[in-house]
Amino acid sequence: MSKEKDKKKPLKGKSSKKTNIVPFKTKSLKEQKIETRNEIWERIDIFAKNLVDAFKQKAAKEALDKDECFYIFYYRVMQSLMLEMSYPKFKYYTTFTKNQLLQHNKDFMNSLDEWTSNQADEEDLFGRKKKIKDKTLH
């Protein structure tokens, strides 16, 4: 009988906060979503795009030229990258980004017919010599 008397009865009418009872978690591990690297990459990419768009709007309202505002922004980003990363990683990412941007720009410019189709000159607007198709049969 002493064991039954020693058991504490819960207080009636008291909330769980007052009795310091931690609520039981009902979510199982199957219901919790595990993020993949690609999902995190996309989320950070969207955040970066929003940040650049917000900076564009701010730069348009300032008295400085938009190019100077972007230079300041670019300088600060590169400075923080240089301080946060190791030098080999910094060098790799900056070189890779530069090459990627140049390749995308080149592909875009080559896709435009008005930039590459000037028949009167021997060179296109990029300074490349046009390939002359020989129509003679051998």
Provide an overview of this structure.
- By secondary structure, the protein is mainly alpha-helical.
- Among the domains are: about 35-85, no CATH class; about 85-120.
- Helix content is about 55%, strand content about 0%.
- It contains five helices and no strands.
- α2 runs antiparallel to α3 (about 65-85).
- The radius of gyration is 32 Å and the shape is elongated.
- The termini are far apart.
- The model has no long low-confidence stretch (mean pLDDT about 80).
Give a summary of the structure in a few sentences.
The chain has helices spanning 2-6, 37-61, 66-84, 87-111, 113-116. The chain has 138 residues and is mainly α.
Proportion of strand residues = under 5%
Question: Which stretches are poorly predicted, pLDDT < 50 over at least 5 residues?
Answer: none
The N- to C-terminal Cα distance equals 116 Å
Overall 3D shape: elongated
